[in-house]
Every structure is written in C-alpha cells, then in structure tokens.
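Incident review: delayed structure delivery

Summary: a single-chain prediction request sat in the queue longer than the usual turnaround. Root cause was a stuck worker, restarted by the on-call engineer. No data loss occurred. The affected request and its eventual output are reproduced below so the record is complete for anyone auditing the incident later.

Affected input:
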Amino acid sequence: MAQSEALMQTARRSPLLLTLGLLAFSGLLHSAWLAFGWGGREWREWYSDLHYLLVVGLFMAVTAQVGRDSSGPLRPAFRWLLVMAVIRFAAEGTWTYLELILKVPPFPSLADTLYFLAYLAQGVALLRLAQVPLRALSTARLALDSLTVVGAVGVFSWQLFLARVATNAAEPLLNRLVTLMYPALDLALLSLLLLVVFRRQRLRTYEGLFAAGLLLNIVGDYLFAYLSTTGAYSTGQPVDALWAWSFVLEGFGVALAARAPAGEEREVPRWQAQLSTFSPYLALLGSFSLLIRLEGVQTPEVQGVLWGTAAVTALVVARQTVMLTDNARLNRVLSAREAELAHLAHHDPLTGLPNRRALTAALDAKIAQTGPAGRLALLFADLDGFKNINDTQGHAAGDAALREIAARLAAQTPSGGLAARLSGDEFALLLPGVPHEDGAWEAGKQLAQAITVPLALEGTRFTVGVSVGVALWPDHARSASELLSAADTAMYGVKTAGKNGVKVFRPEMRAATRRRQDIERLLRDAPERGELRLHYQAQGSLGGEPHGTEALLRWTSPEMGEVSPAEFVPVAEETGLIVSVGGWALGEACRQVAVWRAQDLALRVTVNVSPAQLAHPDFGQWVEKALRSAGLPGHALELELSALPSLPDLARFVRPLEVLTAKGVRLSLGGVGAGPLDLTHLLPLPLMALKVDRRVVAALARPGTPKTEDDAGATQLLRATVALARSLGLSVVAQGVEQEWQRRRVQALGADAYQGHLLARPLPAGEFEDWWRSNKVSG
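Output delivered after worker restart:
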C-alpha cells in the first residue's frame, strides 16, 4: 500500500517536474538568445514575443497542476495565480498579434487593459500567499512602512521619467495615462511585496522565490517605461528577459509552496531585519536629499518632488504616531502581565489564597510592625484523609473541596489577619493580637469546626477531618520561619495523637515531628531493603475452630528499630507509600500461604487494602498477578477494605472487584463501627463479611459490672451490624476479642467469627505454622 501510494505521488509529480524543467530551459534559452543577439531585428521580435508567450504558458501549466492537486490553505492563492497567468497569456497573445501579424502599434490597446487586470489578480494572489495574522496597529505600521518606501520610489521615478511622460503634450492624453498606469500599478505591487517582507521575521523559501520574481517584473516594467520615454526600447532587448525570469522564479515558488505549505523557513539576516526597520527613514532621507539637490530649480518635476517628499514625510509622521500608540498599548499589556505574574508569585492559583511566600512576607512584616510587645498566633491546618477524596472521587472533586475549604478559611480571617494555602492540603491562618494560648487554642477549635462541616461534592456529602497546630510569637519563635516551623510541629503532634484535633506547640513536640519525617524517609525504600515482614494472626469461629489468618505488617528499621504499625501505617497512607508497601504485603502473603497449602495447611489469608490501593487503575491486575505468581487459587485470598470508597458512581471500583470475586477471592469490609457507614456505597460492592472494629468490642461492659453509655452504644451498634449483615447475606466478624467474656457477648449478639488475642497473638510465619498445626483439629 505504501509503495503504491509513493508511485502515485511520483507519477503525479512527474508532469509538474517536466513542466518546471521546460520553464527553466525556456528562460535560459530566452536569455541566451537576447544576450547574443541571434538573428536580425525582425527575428528577435518574433522570437521574443513568441518565446515569452511560451514562458507564460508554461507558468500557467504549473499553476494549473499545483492548484488541481492542492487542498491546503494556499489553494486560493494558486487559483488567483492561475487567473493572473491566463489573463497575462491573453494580454501577451493580443500584443503579439497586433505587433507581428497586423503590424499595428500595440500601445495603447486591448492588451493594456488585460495587463492591468493581471496586475490586480497578482496583487490578490500575493495577499493570499502571505498568511501572517497581525494586530490592527501592527498591520497599520507595516502598511505605512511599505507606503513610505513606495512613496520615495515614486518621488525618484517622477524625477527620472514620469514627469516627462505626464507633461509631454506631444503624446495623446490616453497614451500618457496608460503609460503612467504601469509604474503606478508596479508601485502598488511593490507596496504589497514590502508589506509581506516587513511583516516576516522569517521568510519561507517559496515566499522568497515569489517575491524575487515579482521584483524582477517590477524592475522590468520600470526599465521598459524609462526606455520607452527616451525612445530607446524595442522588442527583443535584454530587458525582456526580466519578465521571462519573473515567471520562472514564481513558477518554482508555486511548486515549492505546494510541496511544503507549512513552510520551510530561512532566517532573515540581521542586516536585512535592520534594513526593514530603518527603511522608512532611509526613504525619507532619500526624498529630502533629492529635494535639496533640486533646490532653486523651477520645473514641474521639482514641484512633484516637493509634494511627494511632503507625502513621504506625512507617512513617516503617521507611522510614528501608530508606533507610539502601539507601544503604549504594549506597555499597558506588559504592566497588566507583570501585575498578574506578581499576583501568581504570591497567590495559590487554585484557591486564590496567598501562598507560602506571601505568608512568610506577611509574618516578617507583622513581626517588625508589632515589635517585641506584640502578639501573633499562627494556625497550621492539615486536612486528614484528604488524599482519599482524590483517590476515590478524582482530582476535580478534590480541587472543588479545596476551594470550598479555602473559602471557609477566608471567612474565619479577621481584619489584619491572613489566610494562606501552603501546599496540597495544608493551610495556615495568621491572627494578630491574640493575647494568650487559650485564645489561640480557641481560634484553632473554631477553625477546625468550620472545616469539618460536611462538604457536598457531586451529590455526595463528605466530612473532612483536620489537624490544627498552633504557635505564638514571641512565645514559641523568634522569626517568621521559626513560627511556621513551630505551628507545623504542633500540627504533626495532632497527627501522631490520632488526628482531627488542635494542639498548641510544646518544645518536646519537635522530637515527634523529626521521628515522623524519619519514618516517611526510611519507609520509602523499606520494601526494597527487605526491612518489612508479615506476622499472622488466626481467625476462627466463635466455637474456637481457626479457619484462616490475617497478614499484619511489621517493620524493623536498622536506624529506628522496631516501628509500630500504628505509627508507620498512617504515615504510609498520608504520603501514598501505602500503595508500594501494601503491594509488597499482598505478594508476600500470597507466597507464604501457597507454601503452607503445599504442606497441606489449608487456610485462607486476609490482606488489608487501603482506599489508595483500591483506587489505582491497576489494582485488579496486581491481585491477579500476586495469585498467579504464587500459584494460589482465588478462594485462598480475602481482601479486607480498610474504608469504603466515597464515590457516587462506584463502577470503576465495583467491576474489578467483581472480576476478583468471580475467581473466588473473598471481599470484606473492616473498621465497621469506627465511623459512619453509608449503605448506598455498601450495597454495590460484592462483600462477603463485615468486620466490627476492635474499639466497639472494647466498649462492651463485662457481665456483672455497671452498664455504661459506651456499652449501650456498642451493643446497639453490634446488633444493627448483625441485622444489616443478615439482610445482605453477609457474615460478621468481631475483631479485638481478648477476653472469654467478650467472645461470649459478641456470640450472643449474633457475630459469626472473631479475631484477637484470645484466639492467638500475631506470630511470625514459622511460629504461626507451629501454632496452626497444634490448634487446628482437621484440614
């Protein structure tokens, strides 16, 4: 297919290449004939006229072929060039017939009318060929530049020969008007040509060829007019070659434009660019120089030079006015752009709040303004679990949430204060004149309450938690950077204590912040360094029979020692490291259970899955790959969702999970009772079990002890969970069962299975295998 298309393109180009070759050969032959003066005067007239007709005819053939095969933006230009070529061919044919056949003077005649029409068509073609959009003021300036140069050329032409033509009373008026029309139309074409040249910083090759051909035509016309006024012109002189070569160059320009309409460009030399800039002034200088040289001479030619110079001067003045107007407009644009850039440099583009740089500058200014006796409070707020919105709802919903929270923050800002967005989900509030810590803590509490008001996103309500750190100047810092660091440290103190709260800075908090930063830094490469491992905790029926195990992450860092999951798992979830860490845990758990099943230990493993993992588009493929790599059947794996994805349309979560459950993988929901449970998000998921959070079990009261509100709430929640599970055909697992009486109570409330220290503590793989063999009755 590609070869046949290439052959077709070659075939289409062959006639064009042949025509271009004939066109170039005709131009060379014409030039040689005229240069060497072959034949007498009569033969030179015949040859020059007929050969020129041939050149125009070949150019017409080139434009016809290019226009037929072209479909790009230059096609209108090719059509107008073809119109010009046809009219020019008719004009040359008329001239040749009158001069060589009828032997009558071909000037003035119908040929001149056709020539004038050809000028108009060529001008339209030139405008179509130059496709450079410009602003109105720029176009006006370039047009004035062009007219200024053309005006100076007109002044010199008037002094050189046009004045003699215009004032030659011996010639009929019609002859004089027709003669003057040619240089006038040439000047018009020259103005268009200069406009194209001036408006280009770079010239395309085909534009250069076309401009050179047009310039040769203009020079030829001027030489013809000058020689005619002096009686020195006759057909067959070397000047005729200029017209022939104008068509040769334009023909090659048209062919090149058809092949590369987007434009191969060549850089304009620096001197040429400078010449374009100074050409109007050089034109004005030339006109004045001619006027000064003719000082004292009283002839009609001098009057024309005077008026022409005045016109050129007026054009330059108009050009300067346009330039000043354009410069003023550009200055306004630049000023507005600078103001916009300055605003962007100090403001967050998403929320419109000041950014960290603006906050730091405001802190410096406030500290300098208030002096040592002044008081400032800085509140550092970090949203809790905001990453889950981005993971489950998408970034558009996350951006909408950030804008809403920024608006709430701005509403909490008093006069003289400043609200700022520091990074992704971090905000700050600067409060002047706060007298003591209690007032600053209360301000932080009000800010937290405003932020935690439920958000409505895409028809779903979300509650976003927030950790707020509070620091005061000069109590906790001596500079703006220290104050910001202290508030940041206090915020991390809230994160460490369980999130969603307010804390005032204390010096001992710095150690906790450094530890959290170390956890994030070291955890990033912990899977690759082999520092992670899994412990396994048995799961069993309420009758005491173990039936499965849950894989629990453990981390021992050479630098930090044993790090508790309660410490590093929240950091992993907040930073997104849970995706890589959880992926490692999934693969390792499948591998280990496959080893046990090969040793006739028929058990199922439960692996925890965070919303960030579930939201990843490749999650389903990761699970299938882990099963396939371990050679493990799907029914040997259970995935426990640590939280429900909050999304109105759960299709992108549900479909991959349905594929997995169809292959036997079990799906359960953990943490039930630790937070609100939205049934509309629960129903579409292919769940098989609900796992009651350990805090619910811990709130149950021991039989024989006084009942408490916590016990009543936990009991009611357990009963409601069991009722919901029964209606959906799900089982209920109670987690965190550590006492026998707790087992009996959750059993009485309807739970199906349990997990906790009462059954077994989490154990390394080897120890768990021994425990399983000694406690498993069968299978």
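Verification: Residues 1-11, 261-266 have pLDDT under 50 and may be disordered.
Action items: add queue-age alerting; document worker restart procedure.
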